[in-house]
Amino acid sequence: RSDATAEKEMTLAIIKPDGLYDNYTDKIKNAISDSGFRILNERLVQLDEDAAMSFYAEHSSRSFFSDLVKYMTSGPVLIMVLEKENAVADWRTLIGPTDASKAKITHPNSIRAMCGKDLQRNCVHGSDSLQSAQREISFFFKEKSPGSGSMGHDEL
Ligand code: RTP
Ligand code: MG
């Protein structure tokens, strides 16, 4: 629906270090707008180890956690708040499955098929639920009281 009563939803998208390094920003942003999302806010940041660990805290006990933190701190990332009806689920669908090498076969039109490489280097992030989206948006965009600093988010 596109009528004024349609419920908009917000989700958090990240272009990960490999996506920026390989210059996929414009292609990803085109896919975002072609799919009806609006970019409400964006920041280019360099995550430090603490920020990456805290952002992906749900995975702290996984064997891939330290590799994930190394990957996410290996270069700048572009953080975006996307808005659309059903934004959380629709962004997950648009990015495709976690393993980009499999996405190339099973979801060839997905963003991860376009710009990802493998299970780790999959070029984009998407919130996995409405609750995650709210946590992740405030993680990067919450108003900070003066003097509270900006832990782990070095603005570029
Ligand atoms: P994301 O949170 O970044 O949107 O990715 P996702 O939901 O599709 O996958 P998730 O299970 O949340 O994993 C987070 C990120 O960790 C890296 N990963 N590495 N080596 C491995 O086994 C492995 N598994 C996952 C990926 O970068 C994945 O996106
Ligand atoms: Mg996830």
Automatic annotation (TrEMBL):
Coarse class of the protein's main subcellular location: other
Enzyme class (EC, first level): transferase
Keyword annotations from UniProtKB, A to Z: ATP-binding, Cell projection, Cytoplasm, Hydrolase, Kinase, Magnesium, Metal-binding, Nucleotide metabolism, Nucleotide-binding, Signal, Transferase
Presence of keyword Cytoplasm: yes
GO biological processes: CTP biosynthetic process; GTP biosynthetic process; UTP biosynthetic process
SUPFAM superfamilies per record: Nucleoside diphosphate kinase, NDK
Chain sites annotated for binding ATP: K16, F64, R92, T98, R112, N122
EC number: 2.7.4.6
Active-site residues, Swiss-Prot/TrEMBL: H125
Family designation: Belongs to the NDK family.
Name of protein: Nucleoside diphosphate kinase
Organism for this UniProt entry: Malus baccata (Siberian crab apple)
